[in-house]
Amino acid sequence: MKKVIALILAIAMILTLAISVTAEEGPAVKYQLVGTYREDGEYAARMNTAFLVELYEDGTVSVDRFLFAAGDNSDFAANTAYAAGYMTGTWEAVEKDGLDAFKIDVHCVDDTGAEVNPCTVYAYDNWGEMEFDLSFPIVPGMQYMRSATVAGGEEIKYTDRNAFIADYFEGEAAAPAAEAPAAEAPAEEQPAAAPAASVADFAGEYDVINVNADGQESYFEEFVIEEDGTVHGAVEGSGMTGFEGTVDIDGNITCELPRLGGTLTGTVDTNGNVSGTSEVRGRTSTWSGTRFED
Fold first, then answer.
1. What pTM does this model have?
2. Whole-angstrom Cα distance, residue 289 to residue 138?
3. Residue 94 CB-half CA count within 13 A
4. How far is CA 52 from the centre of its chain?
5. Nearest to residue 44, comparing CAs of 19, 71, 24?
6. Most buried residue among 41, 99, 164, 232 by CB atoms closer than 10 A?
7. How far apart are CA 196 and CA 214, in angstroms?
């Protein structure tokens, strides 16, 4: 009898341990889908995206985003182009139009912690396979949305995020740092910017990166200085983030974001360097960039 009791206790301990380990590992992946979004042009590296969508057994959803043309194929945990949980939400099995389907609700979280950019889709259950169009923003909180088709099912191909990165990465991997020569010549400094003869000396299209108060980076969709000193552009592809203003002969930029009620100020020099700050609804971001070569 004692042996039976001991055996029962041992089995109970093993089951308890197994349940504990499973809990620590989190819910299992029930369905896994992948898909890509592509654009052409000079901003493609910042837009082209691969998505890894996972529907978990507990009814939650996670959408990872990988900017596969951004030149970073390092480990996902430190990869500047990889965003785990870029969108999150829930899913459930439902009936739609008399057919078995999945209802999927996902969203982003902006830098204030608010849930933004909601996306609700229905995908028909095709013997454990599904496909749907995922609507997503380039930057959480921005209203202009893109769409990517994702497809998959019960086959869990990627248990390792780095394998997903390896499959979708496009471009050349960063080369390991080479040893510096014993006597390396100092880098040539950029000459000091000459005073502008007119505001036309600042004219051109600029490649500008924005960094918000939380350190999150995004690129301006457009930043243009016209020959008459007019400045205009957009933080991203919707009219909500458009800005307009002027630059004076000293390179001082003053703009407004009329639809968001914000301001954008900064400086530009004749070497094509631009920088400044923006403030929208009490939150300040910094931005900087250079003029595109003709």
1. 0.58
2. 19
3. 13
4. 13
5. 71
6. 164
7. 35
Domain borders along the chain are 26-168, 199-291
CATH, domain range 199-291: 2.40.128
- Asked whether 151 and 35 are in contact (CB, 8 A), the reply is yes
Compute the distance between CA of residue 82 and CA of residue 68 in angstroms, rounded to an integer.
Answer: 9
Give the C-alpha separation, 143 to 207, whole Å.
21
- Alpha-carbon span 120 to 173, nearest angstrom: 36
Number of residues written out for the chain: 294
Q: pLDDT tens digits for 177-201?
A: 444 444 455 555 667 778 888 999 9
CATH no. for 26-168: 2.40.128
Count of CB atoms within 10 A of residue 126's CB?
A: 13
Each residue's pLDDT tens digit, 32-53: 999 999 887 666 677 789 999 9
- Which residue matches tokens 């999945």? 102
Question: Which residue in the block uniquely carries the two structure tokens 């930057």?
Answer: 139
Helices marked H in the chain — which ranges?
2-25, 44-47, 161-168
Q: 199-291: same fold as 26-168?
A: yes
For residue 106, give the amino acid letter: V
